Amino acid sequence: MRTAEVAAAVADAHRREWAFVLAATVRVTRDLDVAEECVQEAYARALTAWADEGIPARPGGWLTTVARRRAIDLLRRDAALRRSLPLLIEDEAAPGPEDEVTSPSGPRPGSRPRMPALDLADLPVVEGAADDRLRLIFTCCHPALAPEARVALTLRLLCGLTTAEVARAFLVSEPTMAARITRAKKKITAARIPYRVPPPTELPDRVDAVLTVVHLLFTTGHTAPAGADLVRRDLVERALDLARMLRLLLPDDPDVAGLLALILLTDARAAGRVGPDGRLLLLAEQDRAQWDRAAIDEGIALVREGLRRRGPGHGPGRLPGRYPLMAAIAAVHSGSPSWADTDWREIVGLYGLLAARWPSPVVALNRAVAVGFANGPAAGLAALDDLAAEPQLAGYGYLPAARADFLRQLGRPGEARLAYEEALTLTDNSVERDFLATRLRQLDQP
To answer: What is the DSSP pairing of strand 428-429 with strand 226-227?
Structure first.
């Protein structure tokens, strides 16, 4: 079989199957580092084995079998070594401290921590992939971990990104990211974070923590904090992959449906966000024929499902979750045939529900902008000025940018200039900076 064909098949299996293979292997090893090592070996073996034997009908199953067999070999070797060490020590005459396998303070520096004793007859068999991946997702997004560690582990372990790729996503050096991931793994061990799906009493909060990680990943990709490109497609696609995985694993959760809908509906407009000249296009300027209608249709169907279901135990008077509400707002935009046809009053109302369900200064900011489009720039500016003292919006560039736009519409160019200049200092994204600089130049035009 041709090398290029095999390489493409392995790359596709890496994207589609990595999380499943790693999750199944972790359940054998109970050690993330050992599991990663075994899975990486399985993918390396696939490059040669598939060239000789052909691409298997179920690549994920093949990779899982190879990785788990390698894990079992390592466990057997570790168990055999621990059985042999006492005999080796007894054969030594009066061993000194430097000859001991471990010291009272623990293993010697640089040594790998020993795995716990394991009865190989009790090795777990492969169960449903859904259970394994859910265990891994909840482990990566455990609340005992710092938020940035959750995102880093999710990218590394669930998405299969290399440490260098994760570092680029965070705009930090590879050694810095390697240390961050290592600390997170050590925290999982030290805090005895269990490799399991949370019990029903904990599930809502734990699911929300997972969704927060995926949403943060998407928003970081949707508008990159820095760089020459407005969008980081790699992060957007990883977030969409994770949202689809969660939807597959938790099909009855309305918040999961809502997050997937939000990502689909927002990303459906991606092709219209930048013009042929690389200029940022606002929603009013976009060619809606470029929007992805299939993604919009899928997203709107999920919005309806999420708003209708509302989750277990939710009574008829209970507000939907934040993700179904955010997706509903995106659906109003995506379902409008033109900017002029946008129902801004409905959007203002939905933002009001979202603020009641999930109070946030950013939600209040978005509602204020919607008020301006519904009731005029003066009303929008007044709503924005009510947020001026909000500490969480200090340094948030969209507040001065929105103020500048309303001030420009109200014929107050001097104040608009100051606001645009402030917004310019608060973004490192080249496309956004070019847009704001253009707005500044336009203030000088008659």
So the answer is: parallel
Mean pLDDT of 29-54: 91
Tell me the C-alpha distance between 105 and 107, whole Å: 7
Contacts 24+ apart (CB under 8 A), 360-364: 361/387, 361/390, 361/392, 361/393, 361/396, 362/392, 362/393, 362/396, 364/390
Asked if residue 383 is part of any domain, the answer here is: yes
Q: Which residue from 198, 200, 333 is spatially nearest to 261, judged by alpha carbons?
A: 333
Cβ atoms of 376 and 410 within 8 Å: the answer is: no
Cα separation, 251 vs 306, in Å, equals 11
CB-based contact 142:197 (threshold 8 Å): no
How many residues appear in the chain? 446
Structure tokens at 358: 């999930």
pLDDT in tens, 120-170: 333 333 344 557 888 888 899 998 999 889 989 988 888 888 888 888 777
Token code pair at residue 348: 């203002």
DSSP bridge pairs for 106: 103
The CATH number for 38's domain is 1.10.1740.10
Domain membership flag for residue 66: yes
Helix/strand/coil percentages in the chain, nearest 5: 70, 0, 30
Last residue of a domain, which of 85, 100, 115?
A: 85
pLDDT in tens, 182-210: 999 999 888 888 888 888 888 888 899 99
- Specify the amino acid at residue 417: R
Confidence of residue 310 (pLDDT cuts 50, 70, 90): low
User: What string of DSSP letters covers 423-441?
Assistant: HHTT-EEHHHHHHHHHHHH
CA dist., res. 116 & res. 119, Å (int): 10
**What are the residues facing 280 on neighbouring strands?**
274
Residue 56 in contact with residue 62, Cβ under 8 Å? yes
Number of domains the chain is built from: 2
H or E element: which one contains 335? helix 322-335
How many other CB atoms sit within 10 Å of the CB of residue 116? 9
The Cα 105–Cα 17 span in angstroms is 40
CB neighbour list of residue 209: distance below 8 Å, 6 or more residues apart: 141, 142, 143, 150
- pLDDT score, position 344: 98
β-pairing verdict for 226-227 and 106-107: unpaired
| pTM listed for this prediction | 0.76
DSSP at 280: B
> Tokens at residue 283, please?
């929603």
